[in-house]
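User: Some background: our group keeps a shared notebook of sequences we're curious about, and every so often someone picks one and asks for a predicted structure to add to the entry. Today it's my turn. The entry only has the sequence so far, pasted here. Could you supply the structure so I can complete it?
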Amino acid sequence: MHAWPASEVPALPGQGRDPRIHDTATGGLVTLAPGPVARIYVCGITPYDATHIGHAATYNAFDLVQRVWLDTKRQVHYVQNVTDVDDPLLERAQRDDIDWVALAEKETALFREDMTALRMLPPRQYIGAVEAIPGIVPLVERLREAGAAYELEGDIYFSVESDPNFGKVSHLDAAAMRLLSAERGGDPDRPGKKNPLDPMLWMAAREGEPSWDGASLGRGRPGWHIECVAIALDHLGMGFDVQGGGSDLAFPHHEMGASHAQALTGEFPMARAYVHAGMVALDGEKMSKSKGNLVFVSQLRRDGVDPAAIRLALLAHHYRADWEWTDQVLRDALARLDRWRAAVSRPDGPPAEALVEEIREALAADLDSPAALAAVDRWAALQHERGGTDEGAPGVVSRAVDALLGVAL
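Assistant: Of course. Here's the predicted structure to add to the notebook entry:
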């Protein structure tokens, strides 16, 4: 599966800073100081509907992580999956009387278009669950052989008790885990499981649903968590720098994935930092496909909204914050974009070197994009009020905003 084209990231003078970012597993800030190649895995979409603002906010957060790392002169190895076979996709295809493969391909193509328009840097590997199945099956077999998995009526489950570090990502108690498991794709009430929290690794073939040859596992399809583990281990290995996604993935998805990987390898942790973006609401409720309260990036683009303004609307909120999309949020972003473009369109302006450092400092402080925007606002205000004599300043500002914030002026 191919990703989307990369926009050029301008090189800036000076040196970026290693970011300090909130790690869910430790509950505090950690410094992301990888080697020459930074490794990041961000969980992708289940393509049964178009990209909404909640998705865009999550991918914007991890795009900032990449841009900060690139500014430190590192390379970035970014991997993302596509869950192109799963119950929600199959259910939507059946509801709309469309082939599930065609639905997944259509929505994945639209996602690529949205990411391109928003100038999100693409992953080096963009892997679908279906194409990952040949690598998933041996992992499930290894877990079963090691006694970390068991069969129940043809399905294969992972035993959470096989990982002594289970629970160290989300730090939730058993009651909270059980509740979230039921809400987020698990089956804690299924009779016969060793532990209600045990997640499915391999689902035996169901009539009328797609299935693949699972060798000793029989025909079936993979569970959600093992999909990401197989892709991450194959391309990044254990101990990669950042596991990213929305805050609703901390449990069960990232918790279970970590335990799968740790049981497979005997190493801990799977990722050095677990970083989670907040949720975006609409009309007082979390924006989600299941509720249907969505604002689609593609629809905003069709309505003529500049993607740079959409990106500024996302950047106006701290990545970890839960916030609500409103018409005013978009109006504010459009007005800010107009002010910034007017400011950099003049032939000279106030010196910009200090501004570049302010943006770097803000992003290094747990990706504080609102502070970064405020710094650019102050420079633009000076430009409008008094102007300046530095002929290179507007160009420096344009390049910095592009390189560090992904906004093309």
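Suggested note for the entry: The chain has a mean pLDDT of 96. The chain has two domains: 20-286, 305-405.
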